[in-house]
Amino acid sequence: MAAAGILPAMDPLFLRACRGEATERAPVWIMRQAGRYLPQYRAVRARADFLTLCKTPELAAEVTVQPVDVLGVDAAILFADILLPLEAMGAELVFSPGDGPVFPQPVRSREAVERLREPDVEEPLGYVFDALRLARRTLDGRVPVIGFGGTPWTLAAYLVEGGASKQFPHLLGWSWADPEGLGRLLQRLARTSLAYLRAQVEAGAQAIQLFDTWGGLLDLARWRQIALPPVLTILDGLRGRVPLVYYLHGGAHLLPALAELPVEVLSVDWRQPLSEVRRRVGPGKALQGNLDPAALLAPPAEIERRVAELLAEGRGGPHIVNLGHGILPATPVEHARAFVAAAQRLSVAGAAAGETAGVTSPERAATARA
Ligand code: CP3
Hints:
alpha/beta, two-stranded antiparallel ribbon, 17 helices
């Protein structure tokens, strides 16, 4: 711990934990940490719609850094969206207030797949790489920057349905009616995603997280058959560069397949305790997660108790503290801060020995700002 002032700049805590090294405490960050729950984000958003914000590197870099300043998290995540590369492939993308993302011309046939471009990502997505470089420069080594993308199956869920969906009739229908045709779409998405994520690494991303929000729609056998091959195209193409994190939402039944994925970190939702995930996955990967985002609506004292429990659950191996899905816009900033501070304080080696749930020292809680 004495070296904590020197080491992080050279070899950040978050990256060491990704690689499975024993660390002086658990790193913590929050999915969607740059977002609407933050007044500072809403102030920037008042001047620009969501896509403009993504496409203006100065603004995207500014909101990328906000949660590092406000919450003291141990990693920043690039401000962008998983759907941006689809626009670069020629699919019109609209974010309409209230409706979330909309693709006015959904891709639902082999012909429509053929019409999608496989672009040279540097040109249409250059704003993402510029934002990354700017965020790295602004952070100046304080914490690492995570780049990200969606898995082909999750990207297809939006592109094929034309936006958010409850039952995914078009995607699932296609997967049964013409799995090979859908497979062509997924491989095309995989190739562009790989180029996009490689370019993020070249622009300075120090880890890459893949978001698989909808993989859990498939049973284990069909996930292996349909969703996994394009994921492997991406992971095989990225391996050895930076730590890879795989996030899965709603897919506890897929853990046997996830255990075999060539990634350093598995990030899971809250529906299964981490000890159970660890038992299924084995000792070979770091685990990230997995507090229920709604738990941050509880009073700070309860949040602390839950963090202590979460740390106890994660004790079987390297653990990166996070939520199980994105932070809710209704979350009070003070609660997000309590979550981060509790994770940082209670996970200090030895202190997380399980009996710490009631121990609180508020003067340590605000350390990471400044
Ligand atoms: O985590 C971060 O702070 C980095 C930025 C980030 C965003 N989206 C910004 C965003 C990341 C990593 C994402 C990932 C993402 N985007 C996923 C995977 C994770 C998940 O949540 O399941 C998905 C499925 C998307 C697609 C997407 N973008 C949807 C469905 C929506 C609408 C729902 C919503 O939360 O509003 C978005 C919009 C979006 N992406 C916002 C932000 C901050 C809100 C836009 C706003 O400011 O109005």
